[in-house]
Amino acid sequence: MNQPLSHHLLTMAYQNAWANHRLAKAWCQLSPIDLVAPRVSFFPSIRATLNHILTCDWFYVDALERELRGDEPHPDCYVFFKDDEPFSDASAIRHEQAQVDRRLIAYCEQMRDADLLRVVTIARDTPQYDSRLRLLSHLFEHQIHHRGQVHSMLSGTSVKPPQLDEFFCEGESHLRSQDFAELGWTEALIWGH
C-alpha cells in the first residue's frame, strides 16, 4: 500500500513519542543522583540531555505551529533556551516531553504532501528559512541523535536501557503493544489499517 510522505512524517512523530515514552519509563527509575551524575556524552548528564531534547522540541514545534497558523515567527526564539535545564525532576521532564510530543503529532496529522514545501521561518540572529519537510526531518534526526545518547548513558546505571527500534516493523507489533495501550494508541490509528 502506498502511503504519502506526509503520512510517513506522521508515523515519525508517533515513533518519537513512543520512544520518549519507553525511554521515560527507564529514566524515571533513576535516583536524582544518577540523573545528574557526570557521564561521557555531548551533554554532561542524562538530565542535561533530556532538557536539551525538550527545549529544542519547544523551539522547533513553536516555529512549525506559528507557520501553520499564519503567525509571524517568534520575536525572541531564543526564549526557549533561557534555562539550560528548565526541569530538574525526572517526572516533570517526562510530563513536559509528552506534552510537546502530542503537539508534534497534532501538527503532523494536518499535513498533506502538497504542503511539505511551505517555508517555515525562524527569526534567529540570521533568519532561518526551511521547508516543513526539511525542518521536520532535522527535528526527527535531532531527537534520535540525543535520545541515543541518553540510551547509551543509561548503560552506565543500574537501569537497563530499553529497546528503541521496535516501532516500524509490522511483525513486531506485539513488542510495542503494552506501550501503545499505555499511550491510548492502536496500530490502526498510526498505520491506517
Automatic annotation (TrEMBL):
<keyword id="KW-0479">Metal-binding</keyword>
<feature type="binding site">
    <location>
        <position position="146"/>
    </location>
    <ligand>
        <name>a divalent metal cation</name>
    </ligand>
</feature>
<dbReference type="InterPro" id="IPR007837">
    <property type="entry name" value="DinB"/>
</dbReference>
<feature type="binding site">
    <location>
        <position position="52"/>
    </location>
    <ligand>
        <name>a divalent metal cation</name>
    </ligand>
</feature>
<dbReference type="Pfam" id="PF05163">
    <property type="entry name" value="DinB"/>
</dbReference>
<dbReference type="GO" id="GO:0046872">
    <property type="term" value="F:metal ion binding"/>
</dbReference>
<protein>
    <submittedName>
        <fullName>Damage-inducible protein DinB</fullName>
    </submittedName>
</protein>
<comment type="similarity">
    <text>Belongs to the DinB family.</text>
</comment>
<dbReference type="InterPro" id="IPR034660">
    <property type="entry name" value="DinB/YfiT-like"/>
</dbReference>
<feature type="binding site">
    <location>
        <position position="142"/>
    </location>
    <ligand>
        <name>a divalent metal cation</name>
    </ligand>
</feature>
